[in-house]
Design a protein that fits this description.
This protein has helices at 51-63, 94-108, 143-155, 166-180, 236-260, 281-289, 320-334, and strands spanning 6-11, 15-24, 27-37, 71-76, 81-89, 116-122, 133-142, 159-165, 187-192, 197-201, 209-213, 268-272, 292-295, 303-304. With 341 residues, the protein is of the alpha/beta class. The longest helix has 25 residues, at 236-260. Pfam families: PilM_2 (PF11104).
Length: 341
Amino acid sequence: MGSSLVTGIDINNHSIKAVVLKPVGELYAVVGYKELPITDDIFTDNHTLEYQKTVKKLKELRKGLPFGCRHAAISVPDNTVISKVLQIESDLEDREKEFSIYQTFAHQSPFPIEELSLDFIKLDDKRFGNGSTTSYQVYATRKEVVESRSQALTKAGFRPVMVDTQAHGLLHIWQLATRLYPEKQSWIMIDIGVNQTSLGLIPQSGIPFFKDIAFGTQALYQAGHIGEHTTPFASAEQTQAFTVNLIERLKRQFQLYASANSLQALKGIWLMGEGAETPMLAGQLERHFQLACETLNPLALFENKASNKRYKGMDRHAFGIAAGIAVSGVKWQGVKHVASN
């Protein structure tokens, strides 16, 4: 069973979260999850990780996961990734297409191509390209961003199988939720973290909508106590101020969504992340935006193979990105990919 397990790992400034999944038919089962607080800054200025500090934390993390969890997928921040749609001649062989993608991307990249890790997927949307060309979505990030993560994982005893964006992690959870609740295809998912809030959905157009907001629950916590044992301020005034600030930021993003998706209005909001259960938040979002609003436990979207007793008291709302990254890893292992540099 160990070879089929994939651990999705999401690292940010205040904690490392991990979710272990295994495939069950076309779906997934969660077999374990873990969060470790981070007190030392493990990030450098260019989004790479401090090697020794990260390895130490990952080794500690692995000890708390089910036996046999070697394969791992890990997230990278979305602002470290360049994304472009390229048109490539349709009649090329696979290796020729790959060369053409690299060559075309090199002409448009702000960084030298030899400093980047690239991956790409074929787009089926007919609005891109024509009969003589095929469209590819290309993702690129600096090699040092990928290598700092993969090297730390390897040293800690994991076998890295893929690196993916936090956006893809969140959108995988959105897809699982809408598969379970097909009547909620027009709901947007909002992950409220400590330092960042992310929101996204995949509308009928097929073009994902995803945004990051540099705003989170940090204002609700006592200074110096961010981590596993946080102590929220009890002040209703501070909670209200946080909610008002969040609404203002969401309002701008919802307007952006509406301008690009006029035929599919938003009908609801799912909340997950550390701030999902902020007092009165769901109710105030409902009243302000006139949309249904519910908290979502992302781990409830999976078959449960984890011991409820072992994980009692953990905030399951906060594991959405890690769970989505684990889904990316499981899918990656089950599909042949042309490109992975």
